Amino acid sequence: MSVQRLNLMGAVYAMACIVAGTAIAEERDKLLSEPGVYGNFSAFQIYHDWWNMDKAVRLAAISEAKAVFDKYRDKLAIDTFLLRGLSDHADVMVRVHARELGDIQSFLVDLLATGVGKHLNTTLVLNGMTKKANYVPAFPDALKNDLKAPSDPGPDTYAIVIPIRKDAEWWGLDQDKRTALMQEHTEAALPYLKTVKRKLYHSSGLDDVDFITYFETSRMDDFHQLIIALEKVKENKHNRRFGHPTLIGTVRSWDELFGTLGR
Amino acid sequence: MSVQRLNLMGAVYAMACIVAGTAIAEERDKLLSEPGVYGNFSAFQIYHDWWNMDKAVRLAAISEAKAVFDKYRDKLAIDTFLLRGLSDHADVMVRVHARELGDIQSFLVDLLATGVGKHLNTTLVLNGMTKKANYVPAFPDALKNDLKAPSDPGPDTYAIVIPIRKDAEWWGLDQDKRTALMQEHTEAALPYLKTVKRKLYHSSGLDDVDFITYFETSRMDDFHQLIIALEKVKENKHNRRFGHPTLIGTVRSWDELFGTLGR
Amino acid sequence: MSVQRLNLMGAVYAMACIVAGTAIAEERDKLLSEPGVYGNFSAFQIYHDWWNMDKAVRLAAISEAKAVFDKYRDKLAIDTFLLRGLSDHADVMVRVHARELGDIQSFLVDLLATGVGKHLNTTLVLNGMTKKANYVPAFPDALKNDLKAPSDPGPDTYAIVIPIRKDAEWWGLDQDKRTALMQEHTEAALPYLKTVKRKLYHSSGLDDVDFITYFETSRMDDFHQLIIALEKVKENKHNRRFGHPTLIGTVRSWDELFGTLGR
Amino acid sequence: MSVQRLNLMGAVYAMACIVAGTAIAEERDKLLSEPGVYGNFSAFQIYHDWWNMDKAVRLAAISEAKAVFDKYRDKLAIDTFLLRGLSDHADVMVRVHARELGDIQSFLVDLLATGVGKHLNTTLVLNGMTKKANYVPAFPDALKNDLKAPSDPGPDTYAIVIPIRKDAEWWGLDQDKRTALMQEHTEAALPYLKTVKRKLYHSSGLDDVDFITYFETSRMDDFHQLIIALEKVKENKHNRRFGHPTLIGTVRSWDELFGTLGR
Amino acid sequence: MSVQRLNLMGAVYAMACIVAGTAIAEERDKLLSEPGVYGNFSAFQIYHDWWNMDKAVRLAAISEAKAVFDKYRDKLAIDTFLLRGLSDHADVMVRVHARELGDIQSFLVDLLATGVGKHLNTTLVLNGMTKKANYVPAFPDALKNDLKAPSDPGPDTYAIVIPIRKDAEWWGLDQDKRTALMQEHTEAALPYLKTVKRKLYHSSGLDDVDFITYFETSRMDDFHQLIIALEKVKENKHNRRFGHPTLIGTVRSWDELFGTLGR
Questions:
Q1: CA distances from residue C86 to A152, B42, C162 in whole angstroms, order as listed
Q2: Chosen CATH of E136-249 out of 1.25.40.10, 3.30.70.3420, 1.10.101.10, 1.10.510.10
């Protein structure tokens, strides 16, 4: 094959990659912003014997796991986190978004079958789904407007996951009363809109909690103040379980995470 | 032996298999629909060392386990599920129906004695039995009629098990009050009759809960909405334990499941 | 030695065995029926590594354990159960009756020092003692009479152990109020007297519960109905802990149990 | 050296030992009776791999541990117990008294560094201190006098440890109300003064409970009746945690205990 | 290179070390006294297999860990504690202060990657931050003055960590009511100001508790009395979780701690 032709093919391939990459990025944006998407949070503890393996074996295992991540890139939005040092009973966490829970399972089953996965102990699994806002449509216009304020741009350092289970009384309240309580909750959270990003997953029946609340921030002091603000509103009395566990870690790319695992 | 005779024997054997298969299928249908049948849900976590065994050894172990499944096919109705990725502390689940709890135990003891079973850690056992409907006979005719609507045909993707324990107050209510509460519960569940199949097992004394509720669906969003609907009715206040754990997985044939275990 | 003499000695030895056997059987009957006897329920999980041992080693270990059972036969009443498949976190259970708790400990320490015992993880220990009936003397004569009805003869298949802890309010009630509540409890249980045998052990201070209730039956459906009947009486509101765990298994002789362990 | 001289030296050494022994015995008596002494209860489970070690290795390990016991004999009062068979999740227990908690830690750190200690899993640690009686000075003289009745002499067979945590309401009561409740408690316990010895440790802040109650008896039936008597008094309603775990075992000398561990 | 020059360089280097040491000490003082600093408490249990390793291997592992401590000395304030013997499920504890939680994670991830860290099981992680006093500004001047009394100088022997979670009602109280309750709390603690040092970390959202209370003392009896005093005030009724676990140990330098680990 001539060099020109090879070059041409390379260019076409590169363009295809860019196009594919764009499509992947677009689908990822949709998965992370649309309602009706499933989200899975899986926390793993690395088995003690991993660290006693040869470095070469570990590096091969990591490559195998990376290939699984790549295989599912166009269908799933996958994020990875380093929990070690900040959470107990968990070293790493994976967050997976997909349109079908079955696709999430396929990815995790494949991941756990790799040389890395065989050394991972799944210590927590939370499943949820995104939905249109329940209470916001009934909020006053001023509040609705405040909620549209953009959060600070740029990447965030920390991620926190707090599972929540409501008491039976909460679910027995009529929609108006719950809306009023959620309005107080939302107003208390307003001052932290800019520096703490939030994402809500509905969980009833999909695991043992009702909600998974996910936070991203570079300002842990602001996040702490936000949680105190939310503890002070009346709706907090209906939280039968709040955290327990609270998962806290740092946002890491796959490569950073695997770098930590491989050394 | 002549070829004709061999062929004839093969045909007879095939017919016997079909007849036997029909009998097995009929008995399975009865076990899955009649009252007075025992149901056992056993969740297993695969010991870490399984994955380090030679593939040939694992395949031999899987064949041994399959033989146990076959041995009990005519007496028990056995279903298998993949929980890994969607539930924590459990990789696979077996659901067994039989007319005697002792037969279920024999099967499970045999299964755990195989090369596969020796690598299974039993993380949860739930025992229950099917009974005639407690409250439905006292429901209004219109509701009784609604309950007869057929559910969507075809295989379902997901299975969910939620164990439930009632509080002492619930059991102290008289039958009329419980019927009224269960009527509200049933009406709330009506919109999901078509897409979410339910099966109820009574458990008091057979394990630490009062009921095992089993769900099958291809629509996890509908299932999630059903659970929210059930959280909103007054009967929910008498649920001392709801889930904890909630087991969630996908319906898998033995071969699919073992395929996953063998790779 | 002459053949006649050997035969004579054999006959004498056989008679001595019968006499000894009778004495053992009589003492066993007393231990199982008299008040003032201690009962211990120990549930064990077999360590994973047991199954990887050579069959010959396992058989030798089982013989060693059998010898311990034999050594204590004249002093203790020992029963054995297979829990595997019907209970989680327990494979086998031993129930031991003795006039002194120290003798029970000696037996269990000896058993755990055998080749079998070294592979047993003790997952639950319950200690109790039998006492004269607390409330029956104050029951109406008709009820006292009903309680004398004999239960169905013959061996039972299933055994269930349910530990119970009462709340502080129960213990604060005066004897008359507790008698009235226990009369309602007893009347609710009457229909199941024939098919479900019960035995009560008092536990306060001897472990973390107040009572150990032990059941034997061949009719698990009747047992289930009995528990529902007991959940419906007012005394149930004073059960702070009921089960948790409920241990359920089948009654097995030592040989059957060891046969299962040896294969 | 002449034989006489050797004999003389031997006699002097023996006398020194007796003197030292007497001093040790006197200090032990003080540690076990005076207020202001710290008490630590440590329960250990023997790791599964201990039993697979060579007997010679185990005997050497036991000698090493004995030397640690000897090293601390003059400073600490150390008692040992066999829990195996009567308690779950614990095989042996050590009770240590000292004037400083740091000395108790030094002993336990040394013990756990021996060949035995490396195979011990610490399943429970309770720390407390002895104090002068809180409520007795305000009791009526007759009751004070009753409390002086000597308990039965001679060694006791059984030891039981029950940790207790009071509720917030208890601590909020004024001293008079608590004294009245403790008087009822004490009167209920009087009939068991002779056969059940009690020792109280105050724990608030030193671990997760408020009190450690330690009992010694040869009459487990009397002990059981004592606990029922204490469950019936009003003060029992303020026990947020009672036991959980209850540790029960037999009093054993070091040599007996190590004999059991070595076989 | 001439000897004089080498000497000069040595002197400069020594001076640089002193200067650096001073800077490190100054930064450490700030980290331990300023508001807005993050504190992490990590408790570790040493895996059983550590003790079976060659002493030389363990010493090399300890050197590796020491190097990690040194690497972070200028950025973090790190303190180490020996919990073994006084706490269950934890042998050692590390307390780390930093201006960013991410720096704490980096240190712990590096530590856990060493030859020592590979044998540490993280049994508890608590994260908190220091803040300006919430309620003191509203206290009466006399009380504010009392709070300024210096504590006893000199090193303390014992350290205790008690995590606290408040109930929803506490957070629902207005600031005045909480101030009044905290004033009663503070007055109760006054008598122990001299002998028991306290440090408060705010935790809401950073783990599963609201506060981490850290104590240092040489007088465990005073500390015990302080906790009883705090149990008696009304604010105690709002403590939904107090301890559970309570971590108790002795303050040890790195070298002492590693000396214990290496023997």
A1: 55, 9, 14
A2: 3.30.70.3420
